[in-house]
Design goal:
This protein is an alpha+beta fold. Helices cover about 30% and strands about 10% of the residues. Strand 1 and strand 2 form a beta hairpin. The chain is globular.
C-alpha cells in the first residue's frame, strides 16, 4: 500500500477508505535490461487510467490509478508517457487520465499481508481486472 497517511495499514483498513492508501505493485528492475518506458507502456496499457477511484467493478480510493517514481529520469518518463497516452485516449474520444503521480520517497510503502501477495496464484479462479485497452504508446 502507498499514498496514504495511516500507519501500518492492512487490507481491511485500506478497504475502509479511511487510510488514503492505494493498492500498488512495487517494481524493481534493471534499466539496462528493460527501459522505464517499457514498464510504463505496460502500466498505461493494462488498466484504465481514466476511471478515478476504481478499476472495473472494484470501487474505492484504494483502487485509484497511481504511479510513484524514485528518480528524476523516471519522473520525466512518467510525465512524457502520460502526455503521449493522454493524446492517444483523447484522439479516441476516451476520458482524461486521472492517475495520481508523485515521487515515491514522499510516501511510505507498506507491503501487503502475505495472504494478499500473489493473489491470482493463490486464487487461480480469481479475476483479472486489467482493461487491456488496445491503445498503444508510440515506440
Amino acid at each position: 500500500y502507498q499514498g496514504g497517511d495511516y500507519p501500518n495499514p492492512d487490507y481491511r483498513t485500506v478497504c475502509s477508505g479511511v487510510t488514503g492508501h492505494t493498492e500498488i505493485v512495487k517494481v524493481s528492475y534493471d534499466e539496462t535490461l528493460i527501459p522505464t518506458r517499457e514498464i510504463l507502456r505496460v502500466f498505461w496499457e493494462n488498466h484504465d487510467p481514466t476511471q478515478g477511484n476504481r478499476q472495473g467493478n472494484d470501487i474505492g480510493t484504494q483502487y485509484r490509478s497511481a504511479v510513484y517514481w524514485t528518480t528524476a529520469e523516471q519522473a520525466d518518463e512518467v510525465r512524457k508517457t502520460h502526455d503521449e497516452f493522454s493524446a492517444v485516449l483523447h484522439a479516441a474520444g476516451i476520458g482524461s487520465i486521472t492517475t495520481e503521480m508523485h515521487p515515491a520517497e514522499s510516501l511510505t510503502f507498506w507491503p501487503a499481508e502475505d495472504y494478499h501477495q500473489k493473489y491470482l496464484k493463490k486464487n487461480p479462479f480469481g479475476y483479472d481486472c486489467h482493461a487491456h485497452t488496445g491503445f498503444f504508446l508510440p515506440a
